[in-house]
Design a protein that fits this description.
- By secondary structure, this protein is mainly beta.
- It has a single domain, classed as Porin, CATH 2.40.160.20.
- Helices cover 11% and strands 44% of the residues.
- The protein has an 8-stranded antiparallel barrel.
- A hairpin with a 4-residue loop joins strand 7 and strand 8.
- The protein starts with a helix and ends with a strand.
- The N terminus is likely disordered.
C-alpha cells in the first residue's frame, strides 16, 4: 500500500508539470515529521524528516466564487519509512507586504501509516507498536496547512510551512492521533 500511495503521488508531480500554463509553481523541501504543537502524546513517535513535493495549479474560473484558491497535488515521503502520504486540495494566497504572502490550505490525503490497534485494545502485544507508531484510524485524512512565503527573485522563493493531518472523527471511527509537521520548502514559479 505504501508504495502505491507514494508512487501515485510522485507520478502526479512530474506529469502535472508538462505545461507552465496550468502549473504555476513547484515546491520541494524538508519537513520535520510529527512535531509537538498542542497534543504531545505522540511527541516521540515517527520523528524522522519527510521529503515534501508539491505542484500548484492555476485557479480555474469555477473557483472564483471561493476566492480563487489554487488546486495542488502533494506528496510527502518519510525518510525512515514511517508514515508517507499523497493527496490534493486547495490553497489561497494572500499577499500582505512586498514579497511576502500568507497561504492557508485545505485538502485530502491518503497515507500508509497505522490505522488502529492490531490486537484488541488493552492487549500488551500492541505496546511495542504503540510506542513507535501513530494511529490514524482512517486511511483517508484531511490536511490543513498554513505557509508563510517569501519571494527571493521573480521566480524563486522560500516557504515556512505547517501542516496537520487528521480525520477529525469524520472520516473514520478508529483512534485518531493525527500528526503535525513543520518545515521549509523552496518554490519555483513557472511561466512568464
Amino acid at each position: 500500500m505504501r508504495r502505491l500511495v507514494v508512487s501515485l503521488a510522485l507520478a502526479a508531480l512530474p506529469a502535472s508539470m508538462a505545461s507552465a500554463d496550468i502549473v504555476e509553481e513547484v515546491r520541494l523541501g524538508l519537513m520535520q515529521h510529527n512535531v509537538c504543537v498542542t497534543d504531545c502524546d505522540n511527541a516521540e513517535k515517527e520523528e524522522s524528516p519527510d521529503l515534501s513535493g508539491e505542484a500548484v495549479f492555476a485557479s480555474p474560473e469555477l473557483l472564483n466564487i471561493l476566492g480563487s484558491p489554487r488546486p495542488y497535488v502533494v506528496a510527502s515521503v518519510n525518510i525512515a519509512g514511517d508514515t508517507s502520504y499523497g493527496g490534493a486540495g486547495l490553497q489561497w494566497r494572500w499577499g500582505f507586504a512586498e514579497g511576502w504572502a500568507f497561504e492557508p490550505g485545505v485538502g485530502y490525503v491518503i497515507h500508509d501509516g497505522e490505522l488502529d490497534f492490531r490486537f484488541p485494545q488493552g492487549d500488551p502485544r500492541n505496546d511495542p507498536i504503540s510506542r513507535s507508531k501513530i494511529y490514524f484510524g482512517s486511511r483517508d485524512l484531511f490536511r490543513t496547512s498554513f505557509a508563510l512565503n517569501r519571494e527571493v527573485t521573480d521566480r524563486w522563493g522560500v516557504q515556512l510551512m505547517f501542516e496537520h493531518l487528521s480525520h477529525g472523527q469524520i472520516l473514520g471511527e478508529g483512534r485518531n492521533q493525527g500528526i503535525d509537521n513543520v518545515g521549509v520548502r523552496v518554490f519555483y514559479r513557472l511561466g512568464e
